[in-house]
Amino acid sequence: MKLYTRTGDEGQTSVKGGRVRKDDSRVEAYGTIDELNCFVGQAAAVAAATGQLDGLVAELLEIQQELFDCGSDLAFRDPKGRELKLTEEASVRLEGWIDAHTAAAPPITRFILPGGSEASALLHVCRTVGRRAERRAVTLSAEVEVPAPVMMYLNRLSDYFFAAARAANAKLGVEDTAYIRSADVFRASES
Known about the structure:
Elements: E1 12-15, E2 18-21, H1 25-50, H2 54-74, H3 88-104, E3 112-113, H4 118-141, H5 148-172, E4 177-178
Helix pairs in contact: 1-2, 1-4, 3-5, 4-5
């Protein structure tokens, strides 16, 4: 099998149901999700190398599968009547992981700078690329209907990466670096 097809030499690419320009909003959205998936893979590899973050690695591998589902669901030129891969259950699971990672990290009162351990730094890269993927999906949603589970998942994902980055630092014994000019902006939620 050859990897090149020559069908995109004039700036067009195939989506499920037709062809579009390579700079189409749909291609931008699922392309950014693909970019995020690469960074998640890198973060998983670095986390695995620590030998201390096996639970995180398992979560990241599941997220990679779900990101592929997101991209697949966005690749339909017309998703109406199609069976989509991502469900709201994925976002509910993310919320559980967010809560667990938040509980595993010290309380936070100020903004923090991305970094600390290498695993944490990469999770912060995932957070920012995830936010960009979400923005691309929002742009696409102004043109066509974007499946609600995809929008919900992308919105939760950056919160997951933030919480996971802080938990990774805590597990590895590395302190978060506070933004020194930050006021106390985070307060404990009232029960």
